[in-house]
Amino acid sequence: SVVSKKLYDDMIELNPQIKKKVDILKKSKLIFLSGIGFTSKKRNPYYDNMIMDVKKDIGEKGTVKLSESISIHNFYNITNEELKPLDVFFSEYLNLKKLYE
User: Fold this and answer.
1) pLDDT tens digits for 13-64?
2) Cα(84)–Cα(4) distance, rounded to whole angstroms?
């Protein structure tokens, strides 16, 4: 299974026995994102203004709550180059998954 550090830490907190019974085969570098969104170069300028407003709200309030379970703490612009390690990780994961199905 592939899980985030946060999820693993939460599982350990809820059930400390997991730490004794689960072997971590490999840890990745810090390449995972809690959320990701994509835009098109043809996007409506309305969305640029909306993103600027959300960034301003985050700057003033520290967070923007979208729902009971979703809050935004920051926006980052990420290049294709920065996404490559994540792509490599999931490619390897899918290959391993096929091997052991």
Assistant:
1) 999 999 999 888 888 777 777 777 777 778 788 888 888 888 888 889 888 8
2) 18
β strands within 41-85, DSSP E:
64-65, 71-72
CB-CB contact of 32 with 4 (8 Å): yes
Residues 6+ apart with CB under 8 A from 36: 78
Q: What is the pTM of this model?
A: 0.51
Backbone angles phi, psi at 60, to 5 degrees: -85, -40
CB 31 within 8 A of CB 89: yes
Cα separation, 77 vs 30, whole angstroms: 16
| Tokens read off for 78 | 């990420």
